Amino acid sequence: MNAYLASIPRPIRLGAAVLIGTIVVSLVGYYALFISAMPHVAAPSADDMNVQEIMPGETYRSRTLNLSFVTPMGWHGYAPEEVGYPATYGTPLLTLRNDAGTCAIAYARVPTDDDYEQMAFAHRVFTTHGSQIDTGWYAPMDPAGDRPFYGHDRHPVAGEVQIGYFKPAAHTGAADARPLFVLYEPGGGTVAEDCERAYLMLLESLEEYYEPITLTEASRGVLFGIADPNMNEAYPYKNSFIFKSDADGIFYEVMKSRAARYGSHAVLLNGTFYFTDDGFYTVNPFAKKEVRIPGPVLPAVPEGGVINDMTVAGGKFFYLFGPVCHGIRCESALYTLPLSGGTPERLVELTSAHTLYGVYENEFYMMSGYSDAGCFSAHFSSVNLHTNAITKRESFGGCGDYNEGAPELAAYEESVAAYRTYADKVNGNLTMVEYLRVEGGELRVPAEGTTAQNLGLGSYTRIRAFR
């Protein structure tokens, strides 16, 4: 199924408002937390026996939670039952406590519908690799419903916690729970300021961590791409192929690759993984190598350009090249190039199409259109592979923002069904997948009906593949 096809919306009702606030955090005195302290040996998790234990001033890495941080001085790791944890805030996965025993930090899976409420905004923290974490003060729900919200002003109360959201990119997360760092006082009191400083320092040091792995013929699992989630240009994107092992369910890093980035056009054909960047490449995750396909692959245009879409048919790349498409506005030329490289051939000088399909009855199909806010439109055209003549084909569209039983809703659903039938016919036997299976030393197309979301994969990858 084409990616555009999969995005066609069903009738929806949206209504939400999110309030975000920030205050400037002073860093004065934070680094005093990293002065030397007496060592303490904490037993590591059974799943993390091969990583460093949680020791003061050292970097702790968890291959099961896929994160790392610098432990504040005067803090150590403990089993959750040794420290205690407020049941209101879900299940702790990892726990630290300061030597004075006055406060603790837990990385926990916190239910989204639990019995707690926000009292105030706290801090905006930027991690070492540029991700943003907004923290807030929370407390158990007031049965009378009289607890006010104080904005940026903190009003300490018994049982308060400060929480900040941090989810590694490889994980999808659960709809009913969020991964949060929780700062709290083990006895159920208020949180001291020095404890808050340690908590903020830990958050600043957070990074995603995936233990490196080399794939072999014995490897079995799934492969997909992630990108570093930050949007700050001061920090480079870290595009990586991640492997989730069938054997232990752990996420590993296979290699850094441009093919893993969001927006890279990729095709799996007969076990070979092709992708685009500033040209055409193959990538081999087993050998951890990218190889550029030789030959002049990008024709010159005065204002420069990018590959707006790419697919494979009849032993050739078909690709749209031109200025970056902005929404439904797209002005590209359609080219072909042999899979082995060589000289591109221009089939169409200018087209508004932004999505390529495949060959059907000696015609190559492409589409322009949009999908947004419960509405969609899809306009197909085709290119004759003998004459290069372009022909307008079928168009589909409609809006689904109607009540059940409304005639307009029925018409919309009929249009969506007709679009999907037509798109399946002209897509050249290609399907769009979000990950690949790794088995027997090969990359394989996953079974139909399985999605990255079903498997808990935070995949950035979109790959055209032949079933």
Quick structural summary:
This protein has 467 residues and is mostly beta strands. The chain is built from four helices and 30 strands.
Annotated CATH architecture of the largest domain: 6 Propeller
What is the subunit organization of this protein? single chain
Distance between the termini: 11 Å
- Poorly predicted parts: 1-47, 230-237
The overall pLDDT average reads: 83
The total number of structural domains is 2
Radius of gyration: 26 Å
Main pleated-sheet profile: 7 strands, antiparallel
* Total DSSP helices: 4
Structural class: mainly beta
Estimate percent helicity. Answer: under 10%
Share of residues in strands: 35-45%
Order of adjacent strands in the largest pleated sheet: 3-4-5-9-8-7-6
Q: What is the general shape?
A: globular
CATH class of the largest domain: Mainly Beta
What does this 3D model show about the protein?
- The chain starts with a helix and ends with a strand.
- With 467 residues, the protein is mainly beta.
- The chain has 2 domains: 35-208, Protein Transport Mog1p, Chain A; 210-466, Neuraminidase.
- The strands form 6 sheets. The chain has a 7-stranded antiparallel β-sheet. A 6-stranded mixed β-sheet has the order 11-14-13-12-28-29, with no helix packed on it. The protein has a 6-stranded mixed β-sheet with strand order 18-17-16-15-30-27, with no helix packed on it.
- The protein has 4 helices and 30 strands.
- The protein is 9% helix and 39% strand.
